[in-house]
Amino acid sequence: MAAENKHRAKIIGIYGIPGVGKSHLMWELERSLGPEGFAFFEGSETIGSLLTGGLEAFKQLPEAEKVTLREHAISSIAAQCIRDGKVGVVAGHYLFRSEDGVETVVCTQADLATYTHFIYLHTSAQLIAARRGGDPTRDRPSLSVHQLELWQSREKDELRKACYQNDILFAAVSTNTARTRDVSALLRYFRDYDETKNVAKACQMLDQIVEVQGNQLKTMLVLDGDKTMAEEDTGALFWSNVRRLSQPERVEDPSKSLFGSRLGYSHKAFCQATLLFEEWAKPVVFESICTKVAAQVTLYPEIASLLKQAKAKPQVGAVVITCGLRLIWEKVVAMAGLADKVKVIGGGRISDGIVVDAAVKGMLVDHMQRRHDLFVTALGDSILDLPMLSKADKAIVVVGNPQTRSQSMDEGLAEWINNKGLEAFQTLLGPNATPRLDYKTLPRVHLSDPSFIDHIFSRRLAKAIILTDTKAAKLLMTPMRDALKSGPSLRAAHTMTGWYLAMNAVVDVIGVEEYQTRHVQDRNSSGYRLAQEKETVIVALMRGGEPMALGVGDAFPLASFLHAREPEDIKANHLSGMATVILVDSVINSGKTALQFIRHVHSMAPNIRILVVAGVVQTEAVGRLDSLQKEIEHRLVALRKSDNRYTGKGGTDTGNRLFNTTYLE
Q1: How far apart are the C-alpha atoms of 155 and 120, rounded to whole Å?
Q2: What is the biggest distance separating any 2 CA atoms in the chain, rounded to whole angstroms?
Q3: pLDDT tens digit string along 282-327?
Q4: How far apart (Å, rounded) are the C-alpha atoms in residues 538 and 434?
Q5: Domains of the chain, with CATH numbers?
Q6: Nearest partner of 389 among 416, 369, 371, 429, judged by Cα
Q7: Residue 511 region, left (φ>0) first, then alpha (ψ -120 to 50), else beta?
Q8: In this structure, are residues 79 and 49 in contact, taking their beta carbons and an 8 Å threshold?
């Protein structure tokens, strides 16, 4: 269920051939779900209500007029659902079959443009035949069990294809095993799912993983599963096992027709893949197959060694983010003895709570960096990994056997490298691996190289963020350097600069969090603020830092504000429960004062995030602050860097200019 147009109702079709049990199921669903935002419709009754004489009159109409009425019926249902703010559930048919085998498709283009989901009910043809024969109230053609089997198979296959080509999700449900509560749960899932919630849930899962690994965590290994950690394709292995269990039906890999359809590798395609797994393997069977598949997977030795080394490093975390089946990769990791270090984020079942696609992979890497300030090394092998590779601090393309690896990756890599700024390396795994592109475009690294391991496992040395070259920075620095500016006008310039640095750099370092606000149109809406803004304290280094600190405070109104002339002015209770401290000064000359404040804050709160914000920082100070990174992690944000080592006095001292006290010196 990709995010639907807000002005489009969710309309769910309950389809199946006559006798499968639609009417009874609809009655039970309406009784149990009616109060929960659903509206229920019998498609034939809606059509019959549109003309005098009802369905009998409808049956006598020319085919073109029938099509018009069917389109009118589904449009009226959609309009009613939009008006009432409800999800429509409609019982109907895709095609009819006569006694002489003539098939008539009754699903219209308006249907395919309106429905967002279909649930196709199917059961044994023998049971359907018995129901049809035992219901004298219905005027139905006399069809053999074989004819009913052909009808049901044909309708299910053709409706599935139509859904794939029209961006509609399709779920096949066997009434042999499914109960009303199962269909009710599926309807609720369709009703509640959207992409925004999906990303939020995935980020919550990541937050929990990071939290468990503790405050020592500084760097994260992010790995795709199939073809990255091992040569095997676990999806293909899964369907191969299903095929062996489904004799004589002989299931071919349905993911091929799915991803080869118009849906491609879209988010909706991966939502549909989840429904395929639900369709073909019930929970107990699903877990059994996943166990068998995991036992068939052999990690590349270099990947296994890398993860075993990470296991011994408390500052290093590892997470597998897969578009495939979470359960398989959890079992693979467990069989390798790595479950306590390597965690897995993925889906495959509705109960997993999330759907992972290429975009979600990229967003999770971004979340690691922004929310948790982690150094991310990402390893992937296919076009689905390009968003996460492009976001990572270090990107490594895993290259395997040219006969089995992704055939579209070379073209995708070239596009992202040439036009989207991807900088990546490649590592060749397996005895038959040959390079992608060339080593100049995609340099080679060896996962067993100790210097490479040391680089990706070492603590992150954060670089200063200096915004000198931006056009806005040039405008902002002008009044601060203007000798004619002092007092209120200069303080205003510093306040504006503080706000600019907060909104254009600090927020990128710390990240944002979502919260609920009230829209001007009197409805709930999503808003954003600095991540952990309430647990942030802004410290104005007095007295020159106060105006700029006020600008930072304007950007983050929920943050606490503190004045400090000396490091000792910051007490332990000021930092208790805080996640971030932002030290703000107008000018950093030698860096000595900033170093003292950083050390003092770190001594009282070793795990707090420390940022230093300044209007101007001298080059010498940048070097000193960077050297401190090996001991205490922090980030420096400044409008500009200066090579001028001059320290102002009297009329050139920034503090005196800010407060019109140049006459005191």
Answers
A1: 9
A2: 108
A3: 889 999 999 999 999 999 999 999 999 999 999 999 999 999 999 9
A4: 53
A5: 11-193 (3.40.50.300), 212-457 (3.40.50.1000), 465-664 (3.40.50.2020)
A6: 416
A7: left
A8: no
